[in-house]
Amino acid sequence: MRHRRLAALAALPLGSALALSACAVDQAAPGASSGASGGAAGSGTVVIACTPQEEQCQAMAAAFTKATGIKTSYVRLSSGEAVARLGAGKSKPEFDVLYGGPSDGHVAAAKSELIEKYVSPNAAKIPDKYKAADGTWTGTYVGALGFCSNTDVLKKLGVEAPTSWQALLDPKLAKNVAIAHPSTSGTSYTAVWTQMLLNGKDEAKTFDYLKKLHSNVLQYSKSGSAPGQMAGRGEVAVGIVFSHDCVKYQKEGFTMLKNTFPAEGTGYEIGAVSLVKGGPNPANGKKFIDWTLTADHQNIGPTVGSFQIPTNPEAKVTEDMVKLDQVKLVDYSSDEAGAAKKSLTARFDAEIAPQPK
Amino acid sequence: MATLLAPPAGAPESGAALARRPLRSGRDLTLVAIVTTVSLVLFVIVGLPLIRIFAVAFAPEGWEIVTSMLTNPVNRRVLVNTVQLGVIVALIGTAIGFVLAYTQVRVRFRGKRVLHLLALVPIVTPPFALATATISLFGRNGIITNGLLGIQGDVYGLKGLTLVLVISFFPVAYMNFKGMLESLDPSLDEAAANLGASKLRTFLTVTLPMLVPGIAGSVLLLFVESISDLGNPLVLGGDYTVLASRAYIAITGEYSVPAGAAYSLVLLVPALSVFLVQRYWVGKKNVVTVTGKPSGTIDLITAPSLRIPALVISGLVAATVVLLYLTVFVGGFVRILGVNNEFTLRNYQFVLAGIGSDAMFTTTTLALVATPIAGLLGMVIAWLVVRKLKRFAGLMDFVGMLGLAVPGTVIGIGYAIAFNTPWIAGGRQWFPAVAGGSAMLGGAAAIVMVFVARSLPSGQRSGIAALGQISPAIDEASTSLGASSATTFRKVTLPLIRPALLAGLTYAFARSMTTLSPIIFITTPQTKIMTSQILAEVDAGRFGNAFAYCAILIVIVLGVIGLLNLALLHPSLRGIQRRPS
User: Which of B 444-463 lie inside 8 A of A, CB atoms?
Assistant: First the structure.
C-alpha cells in the first residue's frame, strides 16, 4: 500500500512531464474534427510570413486590418528562414502570404512549389521589370546596392567616399572594406552578379576583380546588412550594402555614415510578395497582395524607418530614399542570376575566400 | 548511427530487459513504467524531429555534401575549424571552471559569495549580447582596444569566438566542479596529509584523480555546446566558418534544407566520438566518494603557492565577466555604445512598454513551464543511466544529449516538419499538431518541447557526474530495506544529488530563456519570443534596444535563479533527507 503511494508520488513529476502528450492523446477525437477548420479559420483572418523589420510588419498589419477589417497576424523571419519554414510546413501551410525579401527567395519558393501564381489586378501599375513574368511574385519595393562609408575613418585614411567599383581597389582601403559572403547573403550575391554584368558576363574577368577586392576586404560577414553596421562602428571604412540599410543605420544613430553609388552601374533587389500554395485563407491572402501593391501600403515604409523605393509609381518617394533616376542601374535579371548562383558561389568559395590577404 | 538514433526500436527491448529484474524482486513495476515513459518522452521531443530532418540529409543533394566533407577542401576546412574551436573552448572553459570552483570550495579568501555570483552570471548569455559587447570593447574601433590602448584589435574569428564562448560556457564546468568538490570526502585529504603529503601533492594525487569523471563530463559538454553554438559564429566568426554556421547558411542563404541537414549530420560525428570516448574510457575511472559514512570538514587552503595563482585567475575571469555584462547594461542606456553615447531611456521604454513586454511575459511563462520538466527529466535519465539500465544506458544517455548536440536550426526545422501536422494512423489521431499558428495553444506546446529538449542535457550531465560519485551501496541499502526504485530515487538519490538538480534547473531556465535558433521556425503570431525580438533589433541596427532587451532578460533569469536557490536550499526542503522514512 505504502509502496504504491510513494511510487505514485515519485511518478508525479514524470506524469506532469508527460502531461502535454498525454492529454494530447485524449483529445484525439475532437482534435480530428477541429483540425480541418484550424485556428485561423473563417473569412476574417490572414497570416503573413513577414521578412522586413518588426516595426514595418506591425504597422502594415495594423493598416491592413484598419482598411479591410481582416484580422492580420504575422511572424517575422528572415527571407531564407521563411522559405525553409514554408518548406517544412508544406503538408499543412500555416501562412497565406510570403511578404518581402529579395525576389530570389520567391523564385526558390516557386521552384519548390511552396507558392502559387497570382496576378493581382493592381499589378498592372507595377513596371514589368519589377514582377515575375510567370506571375508567381510581384515587387512591392526596390533597393539599390551602394557603398556605405564611415566618413571619420575615411578622413583618417585620407580617402574620398568611393564612387566606383574600381575605387574600392585603392590600396589605402586595405582591410577596410566589408561585404557579406555571396553564398550566405543575397545582398552580396547581387554584387557578384553586378560584376558579371559589368564585365560582359566574363567569369574570368569577374573573378579577377573579386580577387583584387579580396585583399581590401576585412571579412566576409554572414548577414547582408552587417557590413553597414561594421562601417558604422568604424570597424571598416566602407561596407557594400543596400542603400536603404545605410540610411536606416544613419537614422538609428550612426550619423557619420555616407551613402554613395558606383558610376559604372549597380545592382538592385526587388522586394516581392507572393501567395502561399494551399494557405488557410487564400481569398484574404489575395486581398492582402492586392493591397500591398497600392500606394496606401507603400507609403507606410518611410514612417517606420524603412527607406526602400516603392514599385507603385503613385507612391511617394521621400527625401531619404534613393532616387532611382539618379543612379545608374545594371540590367538585372533575377532568373539568370539565380541560375548561375550555385556555380559562382562554389567558385568563390574555392578560389577567393581561402586566399591570403 | 541509424540504430543509435532510433530509440523506438530500443525502448521496448530495454523495457523487456528490465522486466526480468522486477520479476526477480517481484514488485518493481514502477521502474518499467518510468523507463517506458522517459523513452517515449525522449522519442517525441528529440528522436522524432531528428529522424524527420536527417531523412532529408539522405536526399541526393544532402548526401553529396556528406560524402564530400573530406575531399572538398572548403568543407574540410569547415570541419577542421569546428573541431579546433570545440577543443580549445572545451579545454580552456573546463580549466577556468575548475580553477574557480576549486578557489571557491578550497581556498581561504574574502568575497566568496561575490565570486560565486559572478561565476554564475554568464549562464545567462542572451544571443548577440556578449558578441556585440566584445566588438564594442575589443573591436578595431573598440572602447578598450582603440580608445584606451590605441591599437586596432581584430576580434573576428577564432580569437573573439574563443573569448566569448569560454565566458559563456565556463559556468557549466564551474557548477559541476563545485558540486563535486563539495561532496568529496575530506577524510581522504586528511589521510594524505597525515601520511606527509603537501597540499599540492594531495591535490595532484588525491583530489584530481577523483575529479576525472567531472573533468571529462565538462570537456564533453563544453565541446558539444561550443561546436553547436550559432549566434556567436554568425556575429563574430568573420571568415572563420564552422559547421553550425555553415548549416544555417545553407538553409537561409542557399535555400537548401537538405544541405543544412547534411552539415548537421556531419556535426554529430565529432560530438558522438567525444561522447563515446567519455563513456567507454573515462567511465571506468569513476571514483566513489559519497559512501554514506560520516566525513570531516574541509581544511581551507592558505598556502600561497596554490592560493595566489588560483585567486589571480579567478579575479581575472571575474573582471572580464563584470566588464562584458556592464557593457550590456550601459549599452541599454545609450543610443549606440561606443559610437553615439547619447544618454537615453528610450530603449528600456521600448522594451518594457512597447512590443517587448508581450514577448517578455510569453517567454518567461513558457520557460517556467519547461524548467521543472527539463530539470527532473535530466535527473531521472541520469539515475536510469548510472544505476538502473545496463545495456541501453548508452543509448538513452546519447539520445538525451542530442537535443544539445544538434544545431538549433536543424532541431527547429525538424520540429516544423514533424509537428505541424497531427499524426494520424489507422484512422485515429495519435498526436495532435503542436507546432505552428494553427496548432493547439497557438504553437506554445512545441516551444516548451524545444526548451526541454535543448536544456535537458546540462542537468543530465551534471546528474550523471554527481551520481558517479555516490556509492551504489546507499541505493542498495534502501532497496534491501524494502523501498521500491521510485521511492529510493525520491527519498535517497534525489536529496543526495540536490546540487546537481539545482544546477540542472538553473541551467534549464537560463537556456530556455536564451534559446534562439530553433525558435525561429516555430514561433507563431500568438507566441512572441524575446530572443527572436533581440535578433530583429540587431538586424535593424538598434543596438540600444537589443542591449536593453538583453539586460532585462538577464535580470529576469537571475531573479528566477535566485528564487530557485532560496527554495531548493531552504531548510524545510533540506529536511527531506533527514526525515525518517
Answer: 445, 448-449, 452
The conformation of residue A173, written as its DSSP 8-state character, comes to: G
Query: Residues B309, B311, B313, CA angle at the centre, nearest 5°?
Result: 70
Mark yes or no for CB contact A85/B521 under 8 Å: yes
B378 CB within 8 Å of a chain A CB = no
CATH code at A131? 3.40.190.10
Please tell me whether residues B66 and B175 are part of one structural domain: yes
At A169 the pLDDT is 95
Establish if A280 touches chain B: CB-CB under 8 angstroms. yes
Q: Which long-range contacts (CB under 8 A, 24 or more apart) does B385-388 make?
A: B385/B460, B385/B464, B386/B464, B386/B467, B386/B468, B387/B467, B387/B472, B387/B475, B387/B493, B388/B18, B388/B31, B388/B35, B388/B485
Residue B568: give its domain's CATH number: 1.10.3720.10
Same domain, B193 and B141: yes
Interface test with B, best of A58, A95, A222, A334 (most B CBs within 10 A): A222
> pLDDT tens digits, residue range A267-317?
998 999 999 999 999 999 999 999 999 999 999 988 888 888 999 989 888
When the pLDDT of each residue in chain A is averaged and rounded to a whole number, the result is 83
Q: Rounded CA gap, B460 and B396, in Å?
A: 11
Nearest CA in chain B to A108: B255
Instruction: Assess whether B92 and B200 both reside in one domain.
Output: yes
- pTM (2 d.p.): 0.81
Domain that residue B62 falls in: 58-287+303-331
In a domain, residue A156? The reply is yes
State the sign of the Cα–Cα–Cα–Cα dihedral B517, B518, B521, B522. Answer: negative
Q: What are B484-528's pLDDT values in tens digits?
A: 888 888 888 888 888 788 888 888 899 899 888 788 888 887 788
- Please check whether residue B80 touches A, CB under 8 A: no
Rounded distance between C-alpha atoms, residue B369 and residue B377, angstroms: 13
Residue A15 pLDDT class (50, 70, 90 cuts): very low
Span B161-185, pLDDT tens digits: 999 999 999 988 898 888 778 877 7
- CA–CA separation, A226 and B222 (whole Å): 28
ipTM: 0.76
| Domain assignment of residue A314, yes or no | yes
Q: Given this model, what pLDDT does residue B562 score?
A: 85
Q: Could you tell me if B109 and B140 lie in one domain? A: yes
- Using CB atoms, pick whichever of A20, A40, A236 lies closest to residue B437: A40
Q: What is the pLDDT of residue B303?
A: 75
- A158: Cα within 13 Å, side-chain hemisphere: 2
Q: Do B48 and B84 have their domain in common? A: no
pLDDT at residue A105, as a whole number? 85
Nearest CB to A31 within list B154, B355, B432: B432
Give dist(CA B16, CA B20) in Å, integer. Answer: 7
Total Cβ atoms within 10 A of residue A50: 26
Cβ contacts (< 8 Å) between B371 and chain A: which residues? none
Q: By the 8 A CB rule, do B237 and B134 touch?
A: no
List the one residue out of A323, A307, A329 whose CA is nearest residue A244.
A307
Q: Cα angle vertex B180, ends B178, B181, to 5°?
A: 65
CA distance B5 to B261: 15
Distance in angstroms between the alpha carbons of the first and the last residue of chain A: 76
Quick one: A264 and A164 in the same domain? yes
> Same structural domain for residues B314 and B398?
no
Residues ≥6 apart with Cβ < 8 Å to B194: none
Res. B3 pLDDT band, cuts 50 70 90: very low
Nearest CA-CA partner of A52 in A30, A74, A69, A70: A74
Helix H, strand E, coil C: the string for B357-374 is: HHHHHHHHHHHHHHHHHH
